[in-house]
Amino acid sequence: MDKTSKKKKIALLGSTGSIGKQALDVIRQNPDKFEIEVLTAYSNDVLLLKQALEFKPNTVVIVDETKYESLSERLWKEGIKTYCGEKSLEDVVQMEEVDLVLTALVGYSGLKPTIAAINAKKPIALANKETLVVAGDLITSLANQNQVPLLPVDSEHSAIFQCLVGEFHNKIEKIYLTASGGPFRGWTAEKLASVTKAQALKHPNWEMGAKITIDSATLMNKGLEVIEAKWLFDLQSHQIDTVVHPQSIIHSIVQFEDGSMKAQMGLPDMKLPIQYAMAYPQRIASSFPRFNFMDYPELTFEKADKKTFKNLALAYQALELGGTAACALNAANEITNAAFLQDKIKFLEIADINEKVMQQAYFVKNPSLEDYVNCNDEARRIATELL
Ligand code: NDP
Ligand code: MG
């Protein structure tokens, strides 16, 4: 292939995850438009090696140091550089050749690499919503200062963003983030008390990583998305509404000041928003399956049950409180989500503990990066004690 053509060179953080693998599918289908410069994983060296041999990046990072030696030996033969450790993620995103950083790692781990990429003036395709939940204020002001676009990958935010093309100067009255409702839509607290991990891991419409699948079942995911939307689109909490739409065909809606509403729709397939963020401002042809109205004679809507699914209410509280409140909520949720996956707590205890941590954690109204780091550490410690 012609190395001099203007292909977008991508650093894909979290290439072995659900979003990462789908991003590689998009690149496989568009070898004339995109090229992989960097691949990273936490500890899945087997898949990372396979991906590296196929996509021939310049550099790979395996965060888990115990996997470094054998991987680097193998990739050295191919002329591919290998690094390990968390700090390497911050270094590789700054490489001169990189045109776009796709952040598809999970949780708080995305924060520092994203900051490093923005400081190096790299456009960001952002899947890692937790980064904006933890430190949305800091990330968005840094992106503004550096004139770096934050291109949403999350399907709801991609929908809003697509509705806003051509409208960026028009005021938004409000937005509606759609929610599938997850596997427990309509369930009572009584019924939820005894749900199992296996039930929670069965999402009706999307196949995703384990953490976000549990977050979808508890509606924490929608809560994190409300906070993500605040920062991406500069909205107040009263302008962000949610609506349960079990078919997941309408991906979200913008309502303008004249009352007009624009929605973006299509079959649920993350490859579309991934490709849109990667190719923006262009749309590129795809062979993704097309929507057929006759397969969906009814699109339905319901109110989200914030009383039973308390995590969504907690996210709104965190938005009202501002400062480090959302950072504490996110940290607590990373601990409780993982504890539920390890059968250490029950389903409803996830939100109960999240709530207690939010009440007890260190709070700073106008936080610096150091405050966010301290709040994250402290909230994790409190949540772990409460397990
Ligand atoms: P996965 O769990 O499937 O993948 C996570 C990726 O990040 C893997 O490559 C993993 O490596 C790596 N990783 C995990 N922990 C760390 C760490 N501490 N440091 C560095 N790398 C790490 O997650 P998803 O792909 O489902 O989600 C990624 C992000 O995208 C999340 O923020 C999620 O909320 C968001 N998102 C996901 C959607 C989806 O459909 N999956 C939809 C919308 C948003 P390894 O494989 O080695 O563990
Ligand atoms: Mg989403």
Describe this structure in words.
45% of the residues lie in helices and 15% in strands. The chain is an alpha/beta fold and 387 residues long. It has three domains: 3-152, NAD(P)-binding Rossmann-like Domain (Rossmann fold, 3-Layer(aba) Sandwich); 157-321, no CATH class; 322-387, Rna Polymerase Sigma Factor, Chain: A, CATH 1.10.1740.10. A seven-stranded parallel β-sheet has the order 4-3-2-1-5-6-7, with helices on both faces. Strands 9-8-10-11 form a four-stranded mixed β-sheet, with helices on one face. Strand 5 (100-103), helix 5 (111-119) and strand 6 (124-126) form a beta-alpha-beta unit. The relative contact order is 0.11. Residues 14-20, 41-44, 63, 104-106, 109, 127-130, 154, 206, 208-209, 211-212, 270 line the site of NADPH dihydro-nicotinamide-adenine-dinucleotide phosphate.
Q: What shape does the CA trace take?
A: globular
The end-to-end distance, rounded to whole angstroms, is 54 Å
Largest β sheet strand count, sense and barrel closure: 7 strands, parallel
Query: How much is the average pLDDT?
Result: 97
What ligands can be seen in this structure? NADPH dihydro-nicotinamide-adenine-dinucleotide phosphate, magnesium ion
- The protein's oligomeric status is single chain
Spans of 5+ residues with little confidence (pLDDT < 50)?
A: none
**Which range best describes the helical content: under 10%, 10-25%, 25-40%, 40-55%, 55-70% or over 70%?**
40-55%
SSE class:
alpha/beta
Count of spatially separate domains: 3
Q: Tell me the number of strands.
A: 11
Question: How do the helices and strands follow one another from N- to C-terminus?
Answer: EHEHEHEHEHEHEHEHHHHEEEHHHHH
Using only CA atoms, what is the Rg?
Answer: 20 Å
Strand order of the largest sheet: 4-3-2-1-5-6-7
Number of helices: 16
Strand content: 5-15%
